[in-house]
Design a protein that fits this description.
Helix 6 packs across helix 9, helix 7 packs antiparallel against helix 8 and helix 9 packs across helix 11. The relative contact order is 0.08. The chain is an alpha+beta fold and 726 residues long. The strands form six sheets. Strands 14-20-19-18-17-15-16 form a seven-stranded mixed sheet, with helices on both faces. Strands 1-2-3-5-4 form a five-stranded antiparallel sheet, covered by helices on one side. A four-stranded mixed sheet has the order 11-12-13-23. A hairpin with a 2-residue loop joins strand 11 and strand 12. Bound molecules: pyridoxal-5'-phosphate (PLP).
Amino acid sequence: MAVTEPLNVLETSPPRFTAEEVAAIAGDLFDLHGEVRDLGSERDQTFLVGERVLKISNTGEDPAVLDLEAKALAHIARVDPELPIARQLDSGTRGGHLVRLFERMPGRSGARDLGDDAVSAFAQTNARLTLALRGFFHPAAGRDLLWNPGQAARLRPLVASIPEVGRRAIVERVLDRYEERVLPRWDYLPAQVVHGDFTLDNVLVDDRGRVSGITDFGDLGFATRAGDLAIDLCSILRVGGEKPFCTARIAIDGYQSRIPLEDGELDILGDLVLARLAALVAISAWRVERYPENAEYIQSWDVESWTLLEQFDARGLDEVARELGAPQPPVPTEELHRRRSAALGSALTGLTYRNPVHVVRGEGVWLFDADGRRYLDAYNNVPVVGHCHPRVTEAVVRQTRLLNTHSRYLYEPLIELAERLIATMPPETGLDAVMLVNSGSEANDLAWRLATTATGHSGVIVTEFAYHGVTTAIADLSPEEWPQGFRPEHVETITPFGVGMAEAVEQLNARGHGLAATYLDCGFTSDGIWTPAAEDVQAIACATREAGGLLVADEVQAGHGRSGEHLWSFAECGIAPDVVTLGKPMGNGYPVAAVIARQELFDRLKAETEVFSTFGGNPVAARAALAVLDVIDDERLVENAKRVGEELTQALRALEIGEVRGRGLLVGVELESAQRAEDVVNRMRDKGVLINRTGPRENVLKIRPPLVFASEHVVVLAAALEAATS
Ligand SMILES: Cc1ncc(COP(=O)(O)O)c(C=O)c1O
């Protein structure tokens, strides 16, 4: 069989010293005397001599590899001195064999009775060892050990040594799959020098099952981290009893608490576990043919390995990969749609588009569906700095790993965020305090409590078709959602231009409510996207104050730079609100919202009641919100919104399809009818551009992309709209 050079260590006979000879060697070389016990080894010999461990190396072992081992051990001891590795005490040679003397580590070997905590700790130790080796390099590390899951393709010739046809077929199936799924991805995986054989047989454990010694570094080499973990998992799967995958996942969690795995690694972890099991049985069968006298040791793991392989094969190899982290393939869109209707409460608003978009991924201004088609997202304002912006996702992930709790403890991100938000408010507003909540609705709800307690009034003015949220109190303030004929008696409406303001105040007074607040979304988004003159909005503010009410600027839609001049759209109208509410874009998708007001308003509420919102301003939410503010600054997205917004407006006007309104990257195009707008929105979707519609007549195209929208995207959008309207 043409099994070539890198196998030479496996092909060379292991040393075969007897206990008496070992006693003599120990005495001669190290003046060491004591009882000799064979600890077993695959290609070397390892003995316990008194209180020391003596290793006699295979003559086929490359001296450079032994140097690799010695240097790696020294490196680990320096980088992570707490790792329990056996120190080498001395060395010598006998009959061409290197003989090394190690200290004996405490604990028992070959443990099979680990509880979940110990399983997790075992994998954590593996990860720590990997971390300790991360910066280590040695020229001999590039050796190709057949045990390494990266070498599985070379197992083919060995399969013939497996006597049973059915078992041979299982191994062939595993190798087919390996070639199909693993090999094409292999060169993209994180790789470094790794232990290469971190198994329960190569560690000692203490009474609690925690690793007290890592005993064998004979398989050190440059390999993928995932392959190294797969070896660890194969060992753990053996102790998993009835539920091997649960135990393996606990080990993966332990490992990931130290080294988070990349998607590409999780994708093939199960395949690597299968490949390792295949390597164990194929190499064993092949070696037993050669060294029948060492069969007992060589075959020690066969029964467990075959049991797992047969069990996994019966389960289906795809399923094994998924149990260990590979993603589920997307559910067929129609089936998902059906299940959505069955599983979700029917009061949830319907899906957008006649042909709903089944999204699986987002990046920047693009969304990708389950078939891999990409859509230009010209509609979503939540991903304000672009879908899945790396600064935000990393901020969230890092803080999630570090700490997430509620605001009854002290932690920096919340305070940083509060101070940062206050600093963005124009000084003349006097807005100096923040409360963090979870949604725009909750922010507006809290603003309502501030307004009613501060003023003692109970009436409110909103624009004709405003939307401010979903709570019971705020649904009353959202005419867009009012059922036919519904009009709460404490609510009056005005146009976005302030028409009807005086009458509204009068009506509220007449009904004994008095004005507690006027809520304004300065983008007037649900009203159909309007940009009234600043004086009109100022007049609304003035009349509100005169009536004894507070002005609430709802920046949930138009805030965070969308309007293109300022971070907050109210600033464009030159008004100084009493309360500002933030939401949607604030965490780029992570739920976080805020109420900013003068401390005296919060004091008034406190006099009646305290407020606490469990998730409000948790460390992760705060980190997400801070990252969003940073990106808006760094990428100059407010300026971008202005510049690209102007290009967008011009391009849309040039189409001459209807009145174009808006500011920055909040733009509306009024078409002749709702039907026409609906058709256009759906045709745009089919052309790969996502927009929607708004306004009391639902005839205004609503274009409200992430603020990273660029000139090139304007061109794509305008071309699609031209085609969709012609
Ligand atoms: C202006 C405005 N305010 C408040 C809200 C409510 O925000 P949320 O859905 O996060 O509760 C919305 C939601 O669309 C909104 O557009």
